[in-house]
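Protein modeling request. Please complete all fields; requests missing the sequence field cannot be processed.
Requester role: graduate student
Desired output: 3D structure, token encoding
Chains: 1
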Amino acid sequence: MRKTNIDFSIMSDASIVEQIGRFVKHTRVKQNKTQAQVAKASGLNRWTLSQIENGESITLSSLIQILRALDQLYILEAFSFSEEISPLEYAKLKKKQYKERVRNKTTDKEDKEDLGW
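Delivered output (117 residues):
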């Protein structure tokens, strides 16, 4: 049985590139596509696809094009994040909003009482 959990943190950069190349090749073969078909669908030449499958570095843009051609862009979901406000910043924001609301109420009240005579 083959190990499926890979610890990328202990791998060298070259080993990670090789692993990505193996993934691309495995996915392409599983989809029963030739290098030429994937290269054409990604807008790259076959040599670039061959490079990554053989463990050579390619540009990030080329990798994205290849993943798109293989319908594997979901992999990039690991890079998504949501903006979160810290509890301290949230409290400061609420305090500021409260002060502005109180200041506006006082100004409105004064305007109504002063008729300007």
